[in-house]
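Summary: Need help interpreting a holo structure output

Steps to reproduce:
1. Submit the protein chain below together with the SMILES for fe (ii) ion.
2. Request a joint structure prediction with the ligand placed.
3. Inspect the structure token block that comes back.

Expected: a single structure record containing both the chain and the bound molecule.
Actual: see attached output.

Input attached:
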Amino acid sequence: MASEYLIDLNDHENSWKSVSVGRTPDGQINSKVGTVIPAEGPRQMFWMLDTIMYAMPPGTDPDKNHMPHEHRYGYETFFVDSGKMWLYIDGMKCLVTKGDILHLQAAQTHGMAFIEDVKYRGTYHDLKVDPDMPALNNIIEHIPEVKDDPEFMNLMPSVKSGLDMIPREPLLFREVPAEQCRAVRNPKRPLAEYRLDGVTMKILTERWENAGANELCCAEMEPGFTAEWMKYPKNRELLYLRKGKIRFKVMNEEFVAYDECLINIPKFAPHSLQVLEKSELYDLGGLTFWSSFLHDYMSIKVNDPDRLMPEVINELKDKFNCQIKRIGRS
Ligand SMILES: [Fe+2]
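--- attached output ---
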């Protein structure tokens, strides 16, 4: 791997820290779930799983077989990076394809059926997990056969209760286009969009849709665009380069990130970027209040442009935890 801060999601050997295999009730493998980054902190943030969801066997009726369930506490945001699937949610059924993003909120019952194999990449927060889960994963990494030993697995309350996951009956629905389903997000239809020189910032999920924990913003950047963060940024950061090519400098390492790579940046680590090819970069950590920051910046620019002085911008950055020192073009 080029750098310890770069994670190529298609290089499963290096990106998947542990793998669990999902099966249908009749024993067929229907998914492989790789843990890329374990949950962090009291709200279980930065948790990143990369899943291959396998196409349902021919003859399966998706309307009766779509794994309906709800989470009482947890929020899930999934990138659909290949294939096609049906999503059932909010009394609707819609076709979801490559490029879409699903945002599934606590207690929002959902189900899915996979028409083709789908790269289904998710970040989570507030999903109630067993405090023994890291210990469980550690044992499984060293002795994989414990997964088949009921004596061991019964020690895990979360395994017995199925985590924060309550199964439901097949969902009733009317079929609609994905555009009509609020749970389906896409950078082509952002909630808000702010154009700056060399970068367009798109808000895809709002903080109020994440119980205040975070938000999802995408930066669409032109070649030559550069950004430099504060000397010691106080946010731990996780970025997803879904498409494009970007040169990063993180601490003393320089590397080039490309399609479907995560950039995993520790708190306080000095870093900067230079865009080499048109890029679509997502802030998965979501600790910066991008939606508020960009809105207020643009509001001042429109309503009171004389106020747009460095000290006012610095105040906004401080207020909304924006740790970027400078943007520009090389
Ligand atoms: Fe779910």
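--- end attachment ---

Reviewer comment: The helical segments are 12-15, 133-142, 150-153, 157-161, 290-303, 310-319. Residues 290-303 form the longest helix (14 residues).
Status: needs-info
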